[in-house]
Design brief:
189 residues, 5-stranded mixed beta sheet, 5 helices, alpha/beta, single chain, globular
């Protein structure tokens, strides 16, 4: 990952930025949420995200968009980038018989984002609250979290308190909140 540039707040020049990215900045600014932004080439892998996190001095989390077998319940899982993901660990905690990755069309319909750009910021597009936010408890111990502004060519650093406080409140999701899970670090667990 080359050419990572770090800035404070939204871009001064919005030309060439997507509508979904600009809407993210508009929402954060209207909610009074401060953020640091890194602009970079497309982050296609978690290794790219880790390098961006180093530039921002934050933990960029892994975001997975999941669904139950019947495609009636949808989940956005936020977890540390370096933890392995096993569906059996989260399925049991959510009380689902089987979870799998949701298809891209659900991602676009509910979160307004495409694969590679999955982020908690996409919840701003989930006006019917179809997606349940699920957070690994370990992330809640971090001071800041890095996430994409609905595109994978920028990454934001936001305090954990503001992300799970002001941000969810701005979406009127405070009553729904989020589901906390404990995912093991060991692959054999």
């Amino acid at each position: 990952m080359e050419n990572i540039e770090v800035f404070s707040g939204r871009p001064a020049d919005l030309s060439g930025r997507s509508v979904k990215e600009i809407r993210t900045y508009d929402l954060l600014d209207s909610a009074g949420i401060e953020y640091t932004r890194a602009d970079h080439s497309a982050a296609d892998t978690m290794d790219d995200c880790v390098l961006i996190g180093i530039s921002l001095d934050t933990h960029v989390c892994k975001n997975l968009f999941l669904r139950n077998r019947q495609a009636t319940k949808f989940y956005l899982l936020m977890m540390p980038a370096d933890k392995p993901f096993k569906t059996k660990h989260i399925s049991a905690q959510l009380g689902c018989a089987r979870l799998s990755f949701a298809e891209p069309e659900y991602m676009e319909t509910f979160l307004g984002i495409s694969p590679g750009s999955v982020s908690v910021m996409g919840l701003m597009n989930d006006i019917n609250c179809r997606v349940n936010l699920v957070v690994d408890r370990e992330l809640l111990k971090e001071d800041t979290i890095g996430c994409h502004p609905c595109v994978n060519t920028s990454t934001l650093k936001i305090t954990t308190g503001e992300l799970f406080g002001k941000f969810l409140s701005a979406l009127h999701r405070e009553s729904r909140g989020y589901i906390t899970v404990d995912l093991p670090r060991e692959e054999n667990a």
